Amino acid sequence: MNFTPSRASAIENLNRFVENNLSEYSKLRNFDFGPNNRSNISCLSPYITHGIISELELIKKSLSKFSFVKNEKFIQEILWRTYWKGWLELRPNVWADYLSELKKIRIEYIDNTEYKNAIEGNTNIECFNEWVSDLKENNYLHNHARMWFASIWIFTLKLPWQLGAEFFMKHLYDGDAAANTLGWRWVAGIQTQGKNYLASEWNIKKFTNNRFNSIKLNESASPIISDKTYAASKLEFNNPQSLIEKNLLIFENNLSFEITDFSTRKFKKIFLISNKNENRTIKLSEKVLNFKYHLIEDQKKRLEEKSINFEIIDISKIKNIGESVYGLYPNVGENLDYINSNKLKIEFLYRKLDQFSWQYCNKGFFNFKNYIPKIITTFN
Ligand SMILES: Cc1cc2nc3c(=O)[nH]c(=O)nc-3n(C[C@H](O)[C@H](O)[C@H](O)COP(=O)(O)OP(=O)(O)OC[C@H]3O[C@@H](n4cnc5c(N)ncnc54)[C@H](O)[C@@H]3O)c2cc1C
Q1: How far is the centre of ligand 1, averaged over its atoms, from the C-alpha of 318 (Å)?
Q2: Per-residue b/e over 290-304, b at no fewer than 16 CB within 10 Å?
């Protein structure tokens, strides 16, 4: 598996996937054939997470090949991301609570042998150990493997989901506050309260094409209980009425300025914001930081080609820019946490797709799904 950190590679992968594999996506997407055979899924999440390629580009490309009906599953999966993001935006305390629980649990588990064995891939569950090394080596796991992994972590190894979510964030190239935190909560049974996801031996065997044998799991565990409930807040997008020529900040979730809704607007200067581990609660692996670094470098080249005035700066230097600035909204996550905790004044610009879709994220995904045709007609 090769995640070359560039927009050109993202587009090449998208085109190849749509031409050769999209037709079989709904039939084959649940199979995890291993890291050397990933053609049944797009493997585009590391790029989409960073805004290198957009959800709408994927949807448009897929619809240029097949009808909506034939593409429905693929489009639904793409919009899961939008849904998770919107769900978390409506309940940002889920993220804040997750991080504060994580800080406490880390201390409790600092010398815990089961935890150490799990993150070293030293358990007596062969498939789990293999996913640990895949994750560290390729910085990606198939969706089904993420579900099995999280389920084994929580219900068989009996480790706190918060530490598992941290382990994923540390190593995934597509690590994303919404998809990851809510994915783990969903497996644990606290996202859809009382409904957990239990990995089973037959399911793993079938969908890994019998790559693993004799998998002894706890297949009847009860969901994790949480007494916290989160009511959806009201979203307010305080978009500026009209844009004037000011500086613009771009964070790691929008690293293709030329495909954003603001690409035709003129800004004084663009600041590409790099965020290393000093200002993150969850420390990322060197490989993940390096991947982000190269994505920023790739954006830099594309801005240079267009003769756009820009500078790469560390997040800690935003305060030195001085005057009021615009920023492409970084979503709930580590960058927004930094901005809020340092009381930085930034006028956020929101993506149109998010603004439109997040109004439908107050309930479950099955409700959101009803609005997918409306979202597609609005943006296609
Ligand atoms: C415990 C757990 C943790 C996860 N953590 C992350 C994460 O940190 N970052 C992340 O991007 N995804 C996460 N996911 C969602 C999903 O596993 C990945 O988005 C998907 O595996 C990416 O592979 P792909 O690009 O080949 O997907 P494809 O099957 O080709 O799907 C196309 C696109 O649809 C979106 N998508 C597909 N499935 C999901 C899903 N279940 N939730 C949200 N979006 C989806 C992704 O943007 C993906 O690139 C997590 C899922 C689980 C169960």
Answers
A1: 31
A2: ebbeebbebbbebbe
Per the DSSP assignment, residues forming a β-bridge with 248 are: 270, 326
Counting atoms of ligand 1 from 1, which one is nearest the CA of 177? 8
Lookup result for tokens 């990851």 = 180
Buried b (16+ CB within 10 A) or exposed e, 64-89: eeeeeeebeebbebbbbbbbbbbbbb
Task: State in Å: Cα 275 to ligand 1 middle.
Answer: 23
Cβ(146) – ligand 1 distance below 6 Å: yes
| Residue 178 CB–ligand 1 contact under 6 Å | no
Pocket test for ligand 1, best of 39, 42, 45 (most atoms within 8 A of CB): 45
Range 343-359 burial, b when 16+ CB lie within 10 A, else e: eeebebbbbebbebbbe
Per-residue pLDDT reduced to its tens digit, 274-320: 999 999 999 999 999 999 999 999 999 999 999 999 999 999 999 99
Model pTM?
0.98
- Going by the DSSP 8-state scheme, the letter that residue 109 receives in this structure is T
**Contact between residue 194 and residue 223 where contact means Cβ atoms under 8 Å apart:** yes
How many whole angstroms separate alpha carbon 369 and alpha carbon 76? 7
The mean pLDDT of 143-169, rounded to a whole number, is 98
pLDDT more than 70, % of the chain? 100
How far is residue 188 from each of residues 197, 201, 254, 336, 356, measured CA to CA in Å?
7, 18, 30, 26, 30
All residues at 6 or more sequence positions from 134 whose CB lies less than 8 Å from its CB, including other chains: 35, 140, 141, 145
Ligand 1 site, residue 44, Cβ cutoff 6 A: yes
